[in-house]
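Key result, reporting period 2: structure in, sequence out.
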């Protein structure tokens, strides 16, 4: 068993990953509550944006800051276009059909990334990564701080938006009953478009940060969304605050398992185990369903 000193760097890594998982998890919950779509392409969209940013920087096409902005905007644009094209026909379909449709987008993007960038060694470095400071003998870089702080800030900001703005109120109303919300004069399509755009921007930001924290690999970045999905499931796809807390726990568990040689090869199943235990605990007195209520 590693010593406490050996664990400390992984605590920093886990908190940073937890912040990014929170970004993805909050985006997943908001989109699901507004549209009923469980977007399984979240990770692939962010990964594609990170690869595009890397290509632009590698070729010297644009300054680094512009490339990073393009990564985030790419996520917003692709997700918005997908939502506008496929959101309406999927609106009345079963949640499983909606999730499967987004999985198709994920596989298309993953195939494109594997085809275009398969033979190139690459790394995406943010300028904040080279700026370090020491905490209790552990070097912490500003990318890790930004990742964690952004996850917390987005959760707080999203909660305030949903609670205190008209558009946020409309999103919460759609989560309860889409048809009644539409009959009350709420512009349902516009509200859904905002939800798609918002989650797409979070996807781009998540991809950018993860590409720096763990490396630029198409499959890894695509399937790391599973950790975020586990956090959202622990929150029962409802509470963004619980999603944040669950994401931090998932990030810490994933990171802290790494230095334990005997079980580190099983760390990828940690999100599933945590989600399963949490769901069994929450459902001990009631039945859980992830399908939205309809009247």
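The corresponding designed sequence is given below.
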């Amino acid at each position: 068993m590693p010593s406490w000193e050996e664990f400390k760097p992984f605590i920093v890594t886990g908190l940073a990953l937890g912040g990014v998982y929170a970004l993805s998890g909050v985006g997943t919950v908001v989109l699901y509550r507004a549209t009923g779509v469980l977007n399984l392409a979240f990770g692939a969209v962010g990964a594609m944006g990170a690869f595009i940013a890397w290509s632009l920087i590698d070729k010297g096409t644009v300054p680094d800051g512009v490339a990073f902005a393009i990564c985030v905007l790419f996520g917003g644009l692709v997700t918005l276009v997908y939502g506008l094209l496929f959101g309406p026909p999927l609106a009345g379909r079963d949640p499983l059909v909606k999730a499967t449709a987004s999985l198709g987008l994920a596989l298309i993007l993953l195939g494109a990334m594997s085809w275009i960038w398969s033979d190139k060694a690459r790394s995406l470095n943010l300028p904040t990564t080279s700026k370090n400071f020491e905490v209790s003998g552990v070097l912490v870089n500003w990318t890790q701080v930004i990742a964690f702080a952004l996850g917390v800030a987005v959760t707080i900001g999203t909660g305030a938006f949903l609670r205190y703005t008209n558009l946020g109120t409309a999103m919460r109303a759609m989560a309860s009953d889409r048809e009644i919300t539409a009959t009350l004069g709420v512009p349902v399509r516009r509200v859904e478009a905002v939800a798609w755009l918002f989650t797409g921007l979070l996807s781009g930001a998540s991809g950018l940060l993860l590409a720096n924290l763990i490396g630029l690999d198409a499959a890894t970045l695509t399937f790391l969304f599973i950790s975020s999905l586990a956090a959202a499931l622990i929150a029962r796809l409802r509470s963004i605050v619980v999603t944040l807390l669950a994401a931090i726990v998932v990030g810490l568990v994933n990171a802290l398992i790494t230095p334990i040689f005997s079980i580190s090869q099983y760390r990828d199943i940690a999100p599933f185990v945590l989600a399963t235990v949490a769901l069994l605990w929450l459902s001990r007195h009631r039945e859980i369903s992830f399908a939205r209520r309809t009247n």
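The first helix runs from residue 4 to 35. The radius of gyration is 19 Å. This case is discussed further under Risks and Mitigation.
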